[in-house]
UniProtKB/TrEMBL annotation:
Keywords: Hydrolase
Protein name per the record: Alpha/beta hydrolase fold protein
Organism annotation: Saprospira grandis (strain Lewin)
Residue ranges annotated for the AB hydrolase-1 domain, each copy included: 21-238
InterPro entries named in the record: AB_hydrolase_1, AB_hydrolase_fold
GO molecular function, one term: hydrolase activity
SUPFAM superfamilies in UniProt: alpha/beta-Hydrolases
Pfam families: Abhydrolase_1
Amino acid sequence: MDYKVKELGKFQYIEEGQGETLLLLHGLFGALSNFGTIIEHFRKDYRILVPVLPIYEAPLRELSVGYLKNYVVEFLEAKGETEKMHVLGNSLGGHVSLFMALEEQDRLKSLILTGSSGLFENTLGNTFPKRKSYTFIERKAEYTFYDPATASKELVDSLFEIVNNNEKAIRVVACARSAIRDNVENRLHNIKVPTLLIWGKQDRITPPFVGEDFHKGIEKSQLYYIDKCGHAPMMERPDEFNRILSAFLAHQN
């Protein structure tokens, strides 16, 4: 389903549903469509906010996980958001969510991470030596998932366009380097909000041990693995992902 992208000053975002707010933060190569199944499932009971992160528009010298976190905070302030919310992030979006939980904890009711960077990542952000080869990029996209068929032509086309646009490619590398540099291992004990970790058992980007390390470091965390699933469980195994998330959110009231 296509959703109307709204604008508020420099911010672009999707807003659907009513109720407690569930903020969704996408990854480095993520698109708003990656969260389609979450939006459809939860819009009946929650207000879903999905800001477009300015990965390809931000000033190159400033682009980092911290910059993206500040951008999200600016967005929430521009929207006049005062109530605590559930914050969910995938991949780089998970890393931004971690910064939210560490530096803006009063804004969070809970934290949900899936395939998050922040500890370890086999990054795709600077590994495109054959970026002019469509087949090579297609294989890179398929590497993200357990089932290669999940990498749709639309997704591959988008990735191919990004890595072959010099301005975008430079920003991808900048974000990937920031994700490595801004490791949060020694800060995880400061996260005090209830945290849900949903990990694909066959995630090759942030392997299962990364989910376990997050679980060990965050006191109030629950860890669930989804079998036959890679780096984006909400796309590859949406029914199981939404079932786990629904049960978790139901206990946060």
